[in-house]
Amino acid sequence: MKILVCISNVPDTTTKVTFTDNNTKFNTVGVQYIINPYDELALTRALEITEKQTGTVTAINVGLADAEPSIRKALAIGATDAVRINADPTDAYFVAEQVAAYAKAENFDLILTGRESIDYNGGQVAGLLGEMLNFPSVNVVTAIEIENGIATMERDIDGGKEKLTCKLPLVASAQKELTEPRIPNMRGIMAARTKPLKVVEPNGAEKTSATISFDMPPAKGLCKMIAPENAEQLIDLLHNEAKII
Amino acid sequence: MSIIVFAESTDGNFKKSTLEAVAYAAEVAKNTSTNCVAVSIGNVDDSKASELAKFGADKIVSIKNDKLIGFVAEAYAKALANIASQENATVIVVSNTYSGKAIAPRVAAKLKAGIVSGVISYPDTSNGFKIRKTVFSGKAFADVNITTAAKVLAITPNTFNTIENNKTANIISVDAGLTDSDFITHSVEISRASGKIPLTEAEIVVSGGRGLKGPENWGLIENLAEALGAATACSKPVSDMHWRPHSEHVGQTGITIKPNLYIAVGISGAIQHLAGVSSSKVIVAINKDPEAPFFKAADYGIVGDAFEVMPKIIEAAKKLKAQHA
Questions:
Q1: How far is CA B145 from the centre of its chain?
Q2: Contact between chains at A131 and B10 (C-beta distance less than 8 A)
Q3: Predicted-complex ipTM score
Q4: How many CB atoms lie within 10 A of CB B94?
Q5: pLDDT band at B65, cuts 50/70/90?
Q6: B16 touches chain A (CB under 8 A)
Q7: For residue B194, is pLDDT > 90?
Q8: 3.40.50.1240, 3.30.160.70, 3.40.50.620, 3.50.50.60: which CATH number matches B2-182?
Q9: CB B271 within 8 A of CB B251
Q10: In the CATH hierarchy, which fold is given to the domain comprising B199-323?
């Protein structure tokens, strides 16, 4: 079993989002970067699968050298080896093309991604990869088991869940609930230092989109306070003033 | 040239988000002097499909195939991309629902089209093709320029208005040219909680946090939700402690929602939680801590104990419901 897990390097969830250079760049000053939480679930599930049956887990990142701490963390959590495609990951289409180009030569049985990155919220890489590699893709997967080359999965659908099966190879994107993240132990952290991290230059794929500028949501007006003893007034205000119910 | 829109259906019916997508595509078509072609996949009755004209479709393409009754991402994407090619589509619109998210990138890769998801604006074509989307789970917006000839847009539900008119349109039934090899994933079972409003589609959401002290007190959330016709949600700690299912967790690492009304009970309003709900049109915060950050993001606030104020609010909501029944 050969599994590839796609890892994004993203700002920590507590980050206060600000922009610089006339709102054209994300302000990275003081920002802690982490493995995208959904990707971490994908990685952990991949490790659980290969622990049950033999196999390898390769972590792949499209990013510049500053992403390496997150890649090393993936190795510390347990990935067998890692690949970094040396390019700025500003466009999901471009990222998927880089990963697809690498994966084509490697014959992976399963490719896992997070359901979306918590910074750009695209949720596109799994589907793009599926199409580029001619693999089926299943998104927002909350459970996955592999047996005899068949994946049995559960995924979120609007208003419920769907159970489905698919023969490998397959691309699946991890949703919360898939598993619990693993904290790397000291042995893992030591081992990660010597595990292979290969740096590959990007192919010539062109970007399909470019972020021009950023903006912040308009600030909320003052919060209208209602005395707790008159809490029932809330319903009246929502009905007659906000006209929302 | 045309604008193609995926008319997503569940059990032969269109959802509100589908009608929004059709209306959005019709508006883009109008602004670019092209036609809006709605593509219905699965066995939707012609009488039902014809309703799409009322929301702006100039032409309705219906793909019927027993194998397409259930959603199969690779087959749906191929069918939609085939129609887009035949219609010489410049823009392909889907709603950013779970199914929409599954097919949009596959369609984009087939058509070598740039793709933006979480779209919250109409395209600005005055200088290129600029579109606004939410980033950082709603903490900010980004303006993105798509540079490819064809573009795929996955629009955020509950963001764009629908306008009904008396338009009619022809329904064309087509065979999308699918073969057995386009059906690799197999649906085994679908379970939907009946009678419950899906969180992602809800116009009103009542949400509970740690302030409710335990899952046994969720009647306060559920009763208000029932009286308001709302869906229920929760904060991250609540789902982490398994008081409520993960599918109810809203926030940066859960679901991002955009209802008309979000009522947060006993949730302090951590930055990660606010990211997932701050696009809601009206926000109500109920918390006993006057310093709770949620009050800075809310339109209405009550500083009080949930166990004391919620019964009063539930009673008033029931009264209002009875008046309008």
A1: 23
A2: no
A3: 0.95
A4: 32
A5: confident
A6: no
A7: no
A8: 3.40.50.620
A9: no
A10: Rossmann fold (3.40.50)
